[in-house]
Design a protein that fits this description.
Shape: extended
Number of strands: 3
Oligomer: single chain
Distance between the termini: 45 Å
Strand content: 15-25%
Radius of gyration: 17 Å
Order of helices and strands: EEEH
Number of helices: 1
Largest sheet: 3 strands, antiparallel
CATH class: Alpha Beta
Helix content: 10-25%
Length: 93
């Protein structure tokens, strides 16, 4: 059986679970619109990988087009500083 590898961009950020206020990590795949969480970076990456695989396999099974994988050699991931005229109320993470 032939295997295919697809590579999708995943963004991982520290987060806090609503209701329990426990620290965790959230992962998001913008191309597919899939998100998941986990207690550790390794766990959240494993969780979102499983979600991506299930989603793509469901698309294939339904005969639908699969979104193109991300070209991770193109594009930029960066942060930006913004200057504000007043002090914001920042939520804790």
């Amino acid at each position: 059986m032939e295997k295919y590898l697809l590579n999708y961009r995943v963004i991982v950020e520290p987060d806090i679970r609503i209701g329990t206020n426990e620290k965790c990590y959230s992962a998001y795949c913008p191309t597919l619109g899939i998100a998941d969480d986990g207690d550790t970076v390794d766990q959240v990456l494993a969780n979102i990988k499983e979600g991506i695989q299930c989603f793509v396999e469901a698309l294939i099974k339904e005969g639908k087009e699969v979104p193109s994988p991300d070209n991770l050699n193109e594009g930029i991931v960066s942060g930006v500083f913004v200057k504000l005229s007043s002090k914001p109320l920042i939520s804790p993470l």
